[in-house]
Amino acid sequence: MESLLDDIQSVLYSAEDIRRRVKELGAELSSWYRDEVPLVVGILKGASYFLADLTREMPIPLEIDYMVVSSYGTSTRSSGVVRILKDLDYDISGRHVLLVEDIIDTGLTLRYLVDILARRNPKSLKIVTLLDKPARRKVDLVPDLVGFTAPDEFLVGYGLDYAERYRNLPFVGILKSRVYAEQR
Ligand code: 5GP
Ligand code: MG
Ligand code: MG
């Protein structure tokens, strides 16, 4: 039987590390939105596991929506040209919007999205990301809340894919470079 585990160089954040940190993030966000009903927006597909766990650590009234975006580029690098494949179901004007991302790398994808959403006049627009790689940033984009500041490695698991695989690993790990060869 083929195992995804054979392709992992090392586990960076274990399921338990993630659970503990997500609990803290949920508590922090619950206090931010104590008096509001935020619209929590997950960017699919990467943020799906994070959003599901995070919102279960937020015992406040909230609503959930999703966007599907595709960023042109290779499997390991984004280009900053973003296509919206599925837009929000709800109008966000006057709403408190919390964008939930799996990882911010160059920042190109989110910079583009934030600019689009800001034009729809939300009352507030904040970003929480599970992982941040600030060393690789190409545009000015600072998330409001970060789970883990990650090293410059290609990470998979807990929603993060390589060529659509590995999302279902319960931890975040470093992918062996032989899997993606010279792509990056
Ligand atoms: P950015 O536009 O900030 O460079 O990249 C954003 C997207 O690129 C992320 O949402 C993710 O889909 C992908 N990405 C960036 N770094 C990684 C990584 O280390 N692993 C995986 N699996 N995807 C990444
Ligand atoms: Mg993402
Ligand atoms: Mg991806």
Polypeptide structure, described:
The chain has 184 residues and is of the alpha/beta class. The chain has a single domain, classed as Rossmann fold (3-Layer(aba) Sandwich). The chain contains 4 helices and 9 strands. The chain has helices at residues 15-32, 48-55, 108-118, 177-180, and strands at 8-13, 39-44, 63-74, 77-86, 96-104, 124-132, 145-149, 155-156, 172-175. Strands 4-3-2-5-6-7 form a 6-stranded mixed β-sheet, with helices on both faces. Strands 1-9-8 form a 3-stranded antiparallel β-sheet. Helix 3 (108-118) links the parallel strand 5 and strand 6. Helix 1 (15-32) crosses helix 2. The longest helix has 18 residues, at 15-32. The model has no long low-confidence stretch (mean pLDDT 94). Bound molecules: guanosine-5'-monophosphate and magnesium ion (MG) (2 copies). Guanosine-5'-monophosphate binds at residues 46, 71, 78, 101-110, 154-156, 160-162.
